[in-house]
Amino acid sequence: MTQPSVILATASYDHTIRFWEAKSGRCYRTIQYPESQVNRLEITPDKRFLAAAGNPHIRLFDVNSTSPQPVMSYDSHTNNVMAVGFQCDGKWMYSGSEDGTVKIWDLRAPGCQREYESRAAVNTVVLHPNQTELISGDQNGNIRVWDLTANSCSCELVPEVDTAVRSLTVM
How is the chain split into domains, by residue range? Predict the structure, then answer.
């Protein structure tokens, strides 16, 4: 089957990932994900792969394959992975976890390339459009800007003490 022009993928606590034809609403592929619930999905910029964030790992699936097996696994988190996303060229991926870390993964090499300690469960991470900063929000209400060039936290904000940051977006 040829890839639809719009890829819609869903997942949840039912341990499945489903691919849908957006126009017709027909589910054309289901992948069983028995290891855990799926907390977050993200499609690579080239629409070739789907990252599924679970507990405590990320699995990368080929969007065009019929195989239910992941093409790659990323396993160095120790708790629920709550955020996942890709750099604009799809060369690397970032993730955030309830283990209190933000990680960067080179998609061309195995293993975690960088790790940042948030000191609280990370709920959300976004990549700034400049592609050189990650912004994370955590359970304790902290927002941190991670400067990828300096390899450190460049800014910390606490909009409301002890109020979890669940979602962020940047433009």
Answer: 7-119
